[in-house]
Structure formats: C-alpha cells, structure tokens
Amino acid sequence: MADKLDLYRQFLEEVWANGRVERLPAFVTDATESHGLITDVCMTRGDLEDLVPALRALLDAIQHDILYSYENGRFLHVMMRVSGLSKSSGETVAFTGQSLIEFDGDKIAGSQDHYDLIGLFSQLGFLPKDTVELCLSSEKIS
User: Fold this and answer.
1) What is the predicted pLDDT for the residue at 1?
2) Neighbouring C-alpha atoms within 13 Å toward the C-beta of 95
3) Tens of pLDDT along 3-14?
C-alpha cells in the first residue's frame, strides 16, 4: 500500500490542479462522502466531478502547499495553502484549510473538510474584502 500523503498529493495534482476528473475513480471509492466544505451538505464523487471544474473556472495554475500532515492508521490529516491565479483579474489568490481524510486501502473513502471559502470569494471579488469584519459587527452584506 502506498503512503497516504503521497496518494493525496497525487489526487490533488491530477484531479484538482490538472482538472482530470476522469481520474477520480483511481483515487476515491464509489461511496466516498465529503462533509464540511459546505454546511450541511454531503458531497459525493459525482459532486466532486462538478466542483472541480467549477473551481477551475475561477482559478488557473492551482497549487497545493501542504503545511502540516499527520497520518494515523487509515486517517490522514492535512493543513494546506491553496493558491492560484484569478481568471478574471490575473492576480494571485490564496486560502487555507484542512482535511481529515479516511482511506480504504489506497483510495479515499471520505473526508471532513474546512477551507476559508469566504477568503477565497473575497479575493475573487464576489464578497467584500472585509466580509468577516462586517459580519462580526452585525452589518448585513448587500
């Protein structure tokens, strides 16, 4: 069995960075479920097939820098910085997050994911730059 961190790096590179969603079956089980990226939504492999092109429609040159990893049994925990170039502005955007990935053999069986999507969407211009500050001060975003 391959090292989980190496498998995960290959998954990030092939599927997310290169957009090869047809490679998903090589990395995830048919029953893969991801929780946490969107509140109260369980994402399946089919959802990933839609999510990857959606993110790649916003970003070019996607890179994943793993800042921390810890492997224990069938689990891998990673903290990472994701960066890329905004397709609309050409500027570099970056956001951080973490995933707890469960493996079944050499494939991802599930994950708990938490990423700074507010930061990403703020940098892309979809939300005000000070969205978090506005929300913490009880301001409504309009």
Assistant:
1) 58
2) 18
3) 999 999 999 999
Residue 120 in contact with residue 129, Cβ under 8 Å? no
Q: What is the mean pLDDT of residues 85-94?
A: 97
106-122 pLDDT, tens digit per residue, is 999 999 999 999 999 99
Token duo for residue 107: 């494939």
3-class state of residue 47 by DSSP: helix
- Six-digit token string for 133: 């500050």
Number of domains in the chain: 1
Q: Is 70 helix (H, G, I), strand (E, B) or coil?
A: strand
Which range marks the domain in which residue 79 is found?
4-117
CATH no. for residue 11?
3.10.450.50
Residue 106 falls inside a structural domain: yes
Q: Is residue 140 part of a domain?
A: no
